[in-house]
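#help-structures
NK: newbie question, is this the right format to request a structure? protein is Thioredoxin peroxidase
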Amino acid sequence: MSGLKPGDSFPDDVVFSYIPWTPESADITACGIPQNYPASKEWKDKKVVLFALPGAFTPSCSARHLPGYIEKLAEFKAKGVDIVAVLAYNDPFVMSAWQKANNVKNDDILFLSDPDTKFSKSIGWNMGERCARYALAIDHGKVIYAAKEPGRDVSVSGAEAVLAKL
């Protein structure tokens, strides 16, 4: 498959991995327990924005991609978005630490792991073993926005670009 496009159904077998945020594991040195996150099931009746990036703690991802979503979270919620999620190939422990390092609490943004880059590879939006940089907006199981970055910049997958399409 070569990506997803508006009008496509979100696949019905997508499972990511994550560590839910809890007050008990809020400290960056605390470890939670990884759990499966059945995205297809959880997102079936919701409006979701998923943005993917090559890796947690990397320069572009940390300085230019994630911050826009943190800053604009209220604007996404005002447009009816139920869930904002970030996806990378990193394991759930790294994604959880990245969430804590960015002071994102209460799963305001889900930090999801794409084990073995399975999902990203299934849609052809990977860079070797890493996720490519892309964004999807899904409304009740239907893709309403899908864009993969043509280069290294954060443009079509950034918070501003996705907000403009909702």
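mod (FA): yep, format's fine, and the tokens are attached above. The chain has six helices and nine strands.
NK: thank you!
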